[in-house]
Design goal:
The complex is a heterodimer of chains A (400) and B (322). Helix content of chain A is 48%, strand content 12%. Chain A is of the alpha/beta class and 400 residues long. Chain A has 2 domains: 240 residues, Rossmann fold (3-Layer(aba) Sandwich); 74 residues, no CATH class. In chain A, helix 1 crosses helix 17 and helix 7 packs across helix 13. Chain B is α/β, with parallel strands linked by helices and 322 residues long. Chain B is 51% helix and 13% strand. In chain B, helix 6 packs across helix 7, helix 6 packs across helix 8 and helix 7 crosses helix 8. The chains are: A alpha/beta (400), B alpha/beta (322). The interface between A and B is large, with 73 and 64 residues.
Amino acid sequence: MTTADPSHGLFAGRLLICLGPGGVGKTTVSAALALSAAMAGRRVDVMTVDPAPRLLDALGLAHEDGAELREVPLAGLAASSGAADLSDLLDSADLSGVADSSNVVERGGARRRPAGGAGRLRALRLDPKRTFDAIVARHAPSPAAADAILQNRLYRNLSQALAGVGDYMAMERLLELSDNPTTGLVVLDTPPAREALDFLDAPRRLLDLLKSRAVTLLGGGMRRGFSVVDIAARAVLSAFDRLTGLHLLGDVQAFVRSFDGMYAGFAERAARAQKLLAADATAVVVITTVEPERTAQAHEFIVALRTAGIEPRAVIVNRMLPAMPPAEEIARARLAPALRRKLARAAQEFAALHAREAAAIASLRAGLPAALKLLAVPDLGREPAELTDLARLGQSLAIL
Amino acid sequence: MAIARLILVTGKGGTGKSTVAAALALCLARRRPTLLVDLDQRRWAARMLGIEPTSDSAGGVAESPAPNGKGAAAIANLAAISLSADAELQAFIERLVPIKAVARRMLQSRTFGYVSAALPGLEAFLMLERLRIVAGQAALEDRYVVVDAPATGSALELLAVPGALEQIAPLGTLNRLAANVESFLADGSRFAVMLTLTPQELALREALEASDILRGRLNVSVAAAALNCVAHRLFSRSELGALGAHPECQRMAQWRTGAGGCAARARRAASRAALKVIELPMLFSPAMGRAELEELSRVLSARLFPPTSARPAPAARSAKSE
């Protein structure tokens, strides 16, 4: 293991997207990465889309209204977390032209600024419903049109349930954050997804939906050129309405009609989001843990990303066992027999889990391109609850 | 202790949901034929057990308990199926549109895909309706059903769907169906949730919140909370202190102490919340295989069917209520 460059180039760009299956500590790792980047002098915003206030919890902002950006106090972190190495986090060559390049901590010299002095960290939690409401208000042709949508029964039930809305709203907030010239790096936690591309694909899917013939079909009356299938879909809907008592068709039509004037605005935003995701300054990392279920999923994610032409920058394996002294060293210590037996047992237990972990890493690596970096984040032995915990995590990123 | 006909296992991601579901299925299969149901197509619980689920969700329920395994080792009394929202929607549309060709073309059309996606919770509801049918059938055949469900957040959303549907559709077929599903979910002899957690702060909090929502707003019974990965304390405080002179040893002892997490607090908090806690040991073994699952299933068995109550007769009781 080496820790020569603790950031492994992850903080050099403008956007860092953390993907991964649920339950791997994605939120924690993104917060830790964001904090490290901020402590290294970058001006960072981190957004979590997880509705549970876990990230804000770890950042000490649990009691605040998490949907708005809040500054995270970095003061006092430098001393406890070895700021001396942090200048290595930055590759200043990659930062030319980046808005916060003036804040780059000078490398290698004695004139380093204390961490937290130049950098900045702000955090927020995505509220998809609120974001969607704001978009409707912004793009609707008139206040009355906006009201009509906001009051629509379908919209009210659907603004969160509609496939991909949460992902799309994350994208929308991301555009806002990256528009801010005072922000150097945006770190993005993503909704727990079954598929890697669910998130990255969100703008295209929403556009597809809005462009689809379902919209014309349902929005307007019957026009020319509909296939029997479309008519059948409409027939099924009305049959469904009759049978179920839902009377949805009218609502669906009204919903779709009210989006009529909003298409252009959506299309423009989605196109910009797509461009941002494909930019060179955007890095994607896949986060996982060593459980076989998660590594299998992480592997699927990576394959899907690469198939889509996105080369992940690294795989981050969270909650790795910490490094331990060799068992012989422990056996040599002069201790009371009872304590020695206990230690021997602990060492044996550790060795078993270590073997399990090593096998998992080996099988994960076997399926990945050799050039793809595997980075380890150690398990702290408890939930990271404070900034110092996050700082420790961020700084112990090590190549596996 | 009376065991619900169908037990849905959910918990925070990373707390061993699938592991517990697999172990529970093994445990129940020792007493009666048991069906392991996977809701998200990853089939991890079944894969851990090395059995091959049938993926036909509409008709697969009544099929033989023997897994249709190619190379998959059969486990006595244990079968697995996998439900998918798509298949449920398809079955539903085919019921609604009796002309097969039309139904098929409709399902293939992108247009219809968007339309059905726009019907709130329909697919989720159809999954629950299927679970209700599966549980009913299991009651007739005296089987148990274990559901490996998605993580807490999604599971709670899923279980809230019938209530929401009843409000959206105040009359008609769907209302009636939703009411049926709701009363199925509220019937502790037919349906119960098993929550999984680990002795970690966030997992504990999520389990307690979930239990509140389940028992309160959703009116669902929580059979137990499986406290997974419990490592009993090995080093006393004074021993940890005594190791100060041997930093390497102390690090090892501290690691082992940290591995125990907050089990004691989890135990207390759960009992305050009137949750039945079943502790499952952390298994310090180099692999998580069949032998490990068997070990966990024996622990579950001892807690769910304590030897003192020799004839728990859970089947008789739940059959009566149906």
